[in-house]
Amino acid sequence: MAASMKKHPMPEQDPAVRAHNFEEVALGYDEETAVAEAGRCLNCKVPQCRKGCPVQVNIPAFISKVKERDFDGAISIIKESNSLPAVCGRVCPQESQCEKHCVLGKKGEPVGIGRLERFAADWQMAKDEEITPMHFAPDAQKVAVIGAGPAGLTCAGALARKGYRVTIFEALHVAGGVLSYGIPEFRLPKDKVVRKEIANLEKMGVKIELDSVAGRLYTVDELMQEEGFDAVFVGTGAGLPRFMGIPGENLNGVYSANEFLTRCNLMKAYQFPKYATPIHVGKHVAVVGGGNVAMDAARTALRLGAEHVYIVYRRSMEEIPARAEEVHHAKEEGIDFRLLNNPVEVIGDEKGWVKALRCVRMALGEPDASGRRRPVPMEGSKFQLEVDTVIIAIGTGPNPIVASTTPGMDTNKRGNIIADEETGATTKEGVFAGGDIVTGAATVILAMGAGKKAAAAMDEYLKRKKEA
Amino acid sequence: MFRVLRKKELSPGVFDYDVEAPRVAKKALPGQFIVLRVNEEGERIPLTIADFAPEAGFVKIIFQVVGASTAALAAVAEGESILDFVGPLGQPSRIGSDMGTVVFIGGGIGVAPVYPIARAVHEAGNKVISILGAKTKDILILEEEMRSVSDEVIVTTDDGSYGVKGFVTTALQQLVERGEKIHQVTAIGPGIMMKSVADATRPLGIKTIVSLNPIMVDGTGMCGGCRVQVGDETKFACVDGPEFDGHLVDFAGLMSRGRMYREQEAEAKDHVCNIGLGR
Ligand SMILES: Cc1cc2nc3c(=O)[nH]c(=O)nc-3n(C[C@H](O)[C@H](O)[C@H](O)COP(=O)(O)OP(=O)(O)OC[C@H]3O[C@@H](n4cnc5c(N)ncnc54)[C@H](O)[C@@H]3O)c2cc1C
Ligand SMILES: Cc1cc2nc3c(=O)[nH]c(=O)nc-3n(C[C@H](O)[C@H](O)[C@H](O)COP(=O)(O)OP(=O)(O)OC[C@H]3O[C@@H](n4cnc5c(N)ncnc54)[C@H](O)[C@@H]3O)c2cc1C
Ligand code: SF4
Ligand code: FES
User: Fold this and answer.
1) Confidence band (pLDDT; 50, 70, 90) for B266?
2) Which whole number is the average pLDDT over B64-88?
3) Helices marked H in A23-128 — which ranges?
4) Is pLDDT above 90 for A351?
5) ipTM of predicted complex
6) Which of B236, B240, B257 has the most ligand 4 atoms within 8 A of CB, as the residue to mutate?
7) Which chain A residues in 7-46 lie under 8 Å from chain B, judged by CB atoms?
8) What is the crossing angle of helices A59-67 and A113-126, to 10°?
9) A388 CA to chain B: closest CA distance, Å?
């Protein structure tokens, strides 16, 4: 029987309804759909999909288990390589990873690998699995992890499982990194998924110290010399928002995407005034940028009550870096894409508030260093979008607090920590790093992969240290 | 959780808390601040470290009730706890033994952050002259403390109820006129006061440090909400500051951004009052 050419569609909230609530957009496969979708997999001898996965999940094996309705079996196969499948199934850019390489994709649609991964993970989460706390030896070595994002959480989990006493230091009042403060509830539910994963780590015995800004409260040297940690992992992410450097960027009504999303996700401004943090949305909103962050900001603005939301992006739909599904969802919800447009000035009113965004039209020229065609401004093409809020989502850089207080740990000229790709080892002995702080803003799965590799290398390092 | 060990009302609506936070107390330096969140629904608000006791393990904060979050904070009783208390944040003040004569100007609640800096500068062996400004005598705070760390203290009140009648700039002018050789001015208070001081010292070429208080969220450099224009650069007050060269700060922009949530702040304050948290 020939497999169907198309993925089983994902049940979703109606766009007209969901544009006004913060509930999850994609509802997840039910058992029957999951088993049917798993049935599309050809169980290839040389599975191409696996090569596309940055952590090489054994994809055909877990899909076979789903087909056999052995969901416990499926999730344990996934968890051999991926400790946060409920997150990855939801946020991985599958179309440029596993699903890109699936052979079915040549003639039709690839297997819905991400959807199946999510199904298996959710199935297990719904069961409230028992977590057995680790027993740590009295002389177990201690590891400090700085930053509770995907890189830090993965590293911490892997080391705790090996019997190390792990403490995570997190600057914010909530763990999770971007999973908590950046990616919105409607894409990644906090209580159902993120908090649960974190609670499981804690049940296992990982200590999480919130409200602890490393570099200020303790420097890396103090952690190792005074607080008794034998090794440190730095996973502080790419949290420093970039601005464009155009006139008017400091007007009222101009936000970085980080601030806008933090107010909403972390501080729950969407429940103002029950939650005390205010947010300004306005009627007409322009979001500058074309990545996941821009899509999240635009769709959040819509849900907060904006009437019209633009995405202003300087390249074309071809180059847009966001996950395909997010772009698709954003369009369905009515986000107005203004492509090949670049902002040149934010215009304010007499009271210091945004009243318009002046843009210039762009044309695509020769490919640039990134291999994408370079956008060049078209003469005499300036125009204005009348908006009262502008959200800048053009990228983030590394936060300098830890690097600047850690002598001996070198950074590159962009401020990213220099770390070995395979081991995460930095130029400072006993200090490892991974995730966005090393690579610059990337993806959840890459950050997790880096955390996992570093944990393995730290294990080796700590064993050697103990013997010495 | 961070317990309020001692609570005092310094003047109507101005409170002094010693908060149990041993890790922060050990690391705090003059000029730095903390960010706190009173409860689960609370906003993250920045407050200056007004004093710190590394041995006793507490940090002093002095705050004025101006809106919802400070009202919620004022409703915390002695012995009760604050949910989150993060710090020390920001760059510490630069303090040396060769600073010469430093004039500290504190306006209103701004005297609180001035105190630990003035003390450190005084202890380092420099001459300290302090100007304390208040609208009226009853709301002047920390006069005794400031006297103990200053070679000279001048009080100004807007209504003349105590000390010199006028603004802090009136007293500064008097110092200049009497020929006092001033090497540095540090001014902390309302934006308009810091602007007036900077405008007064600019033509005299006196180095002037101000401590800015823009709206903040995380306090760690992640949101950019605290950005201010300093010279031709945009700076993040929480990580690059809060102290900056007063002659380069765009005060108009700072004050305008400070008004961003005015309407919502009023709504939030009503909410706090309605549910009985406020005073
Ligand atoms: C809005 C948004 C949407 C995204 N969408 C996707 C998506 O759909 N798919 C995808 O794969 N990726 C997405 N990403 C990217 C992805 O989230 C990141 O690549 C990933 O989270 C990086 O993980 P990390 O652990 O390196 O850092 P982070 O997640 O940034 O975590 C770093 C943590 O370290 C803490 N920290 C920083 N400094 C200190 C300090 N001095 N002391 C203590 N703690 C500190 C921070 O508070 C934070 O909690 C998105 C990013 C954003 C912002
Ligand atoms: C680094 C720093 C240090 C600070 N130190 C102190 C301190 O030691 N003691 C103290 O009392 N306050 C201090 N502040 C100001 C304090 O953070 C604000 O008063 C507080 O956030 C107001 O919260 P609210 O919800 O009570 O009032 P809101 O309802 O938010 O505001 C009420 C009124 O206060 C004004 N306001 C709001 N935010 C600020 C602000 N950041 N600064 C000045 N006015 C503001 C608003 O314009 C509004 O009119 C500091 C601010 C910063 C950035
Ligand atoms: S982790 Fe990501 S790339 Fe790997 S199989 Fe799952 S969805 Fe695909
Ligand atoms: S308060 Fe968020 S960057 Fe300064």
Assistant:
1) confident
2) 93
3) 31-38, 48-52, 59-67, 71-81, 85-91, 98-101, 104-107, 113-126
4) no
5) 0.89
6) B236
7) none
8) 60
9) 13
Contact yes or no for A400/A437 (Cβ under 8 A): no
Domain B2-89, CATH among 3.30.1330.60, 2.40.30.10, 1.10.10.10, 3.40.50.10380:
2.40.30.10
Q: Which residues pair with B210 in a beta bridge?
A: B187, B244
Percentage of residues in chain B having pLDDT higher than 90: 73
A278: nearest CB among B23, B41, B268? B268
Helices marked H in B107-236: 111-123, 143-148, 168-177, 191-201
pLDDT at B277: 47
Look over chain A and give the mean of its residue pLDDT values, rounded to a whole number: 92
Q: What is the pLDDT of residues B209-257, one digit of tens each?
A: 999 999 999 999 999 999 999 998 999 999 998 999 999 999 988 888 8
Quote the tokens at residue A465: 């240290």
Domain over B101-258 is classified CATH 3.40.50.1820: no
What's the whole-model pTM score?
0.92
From start to end of A279-436, where are the E strands?
Answer: 284-288, 308-313, 336-339, 341-348, 354-367, 373-377, 383-385, 389-392, 396-397, 431-433
Condensed to tens digits (0 to 9), the pLDDT of residues B23-50 reads 999 999 999 999 999 999 999 999 999 9
Contact A276 B268 (CB under 8 A): yes
| For chain B, domain boundaries | 2-89, 101-258
- Partnered with residue A311 across adjacent β-strands are A287, A337
Integer Cα distance of A226 and A461 in angstroms: 20
Q: Which two tokens stand for residue A79?
A: 């968890």
Q: Do B229 and A250 touch (CB under 8 A)?
A: yes
